[in-house]
Amino acid sequence: MPTLPLPLSALCGLADEPTLLPRVRLAIAMIAQEVFAEPPETPGYPLRWNLAKTVLSPTAAQTMQMMVGIVASPPMVAAAAATGATGASAMAAAITDDQILGAIRLGWNAVAGVSPTAAEPMVVET
Questions:
Q1: How far is CA 90 from its chain centroid?
Q2: Pairwise CA distance, residues 88 & 120, whole Å
Q3: Half-sphere exposure (CA, 13 Å, Cβ side) for 80?
Q4: Which of 3, 17, 11 is CA-nearest to residue 79?
Q5: Largest CA distance in the chain
Q6: What's the pLDDT at 123?
Q7: Residue 16 φ then ψ, to 5°
Q8: What is the C-alpha to C-alpha distance for residues 63 and 78, in angstroms, rounded to an integer?
Q9: Euclidean distance between CA atoms 89 and 75, whole angstroms
Q10: Nearest to 51 by CA among 64, 60, 62
Q11: I want to staple 38 with a disulfide (CB 3.0 to 4.6 A). Which of 42, 49, 89, 106 is the partner?
C-alpha cells in the first residue's frame, strides 16, 4: 500500500479550507457545463448528466460534501504535496485552477455513480 505524501491532518485542513471552497464550487459548475455539452452516447451519460443538473449551481453544503472526495483524489493529493506548504491556506493558494478542474473531471463518474466498466468506451467490431 503506498504511503501518503501528506499526513491526513494536512489533507483534512485542506478539505476545510474556506479559501478553497468558492474555487471548488465554481469548478463544479464549470464541469457541469462540460457534461451538458457531451454527446448522449458518452459512457454513463444519463448519470453524468443527472449529476450535472443537480450541481449546476452547487450550494455550499453540496460543495462541502464533495470537497473531501476532491481533496482525497490522487491529483489533488499530489498537487497539495507539490506545494511544499504545510498550512491549509498556503496549500490552497498554491493549487492551480487547472488542478482543481482536473480532479473534479477525474472524479465525476464516481460521484455520479457510473461504474468503472460502464465508463469504458465501447468497442464496435466490424
A1: 20
A2: 35
A3: 30
A4: 11
A5: 56
A6: 42
A7: -100, 5
A8: 21
A9: 18
A10: 62
A11: 42
pTM: 0.83
Cα-based distances in Å from 46 to 4, 33, 35, 42, 113: 34, 14, 10, 9, 10
Q: ∠ CA 92-20-76 to the nearest 5 degrees?
A: 60
Which residue has 479550507 as its cell numbers? 17
Retrieve residue 47's grid coordinates: 448519470
Backbone angles phi, psi at 90, to 5 degrees: -70, -40
The total number of residues written for the chain in this structure: 126
d(CA 85, CA 63): 24
Contact 119, 44 (CB under 8 A): yes
Residue reference for cell 488542478: 99
Range 2-30 average pLDDT: 91
Q: Coil, strand or helix: which one is 96?
A: coil
For residue 34, what is its C-alpha cell?
462540460
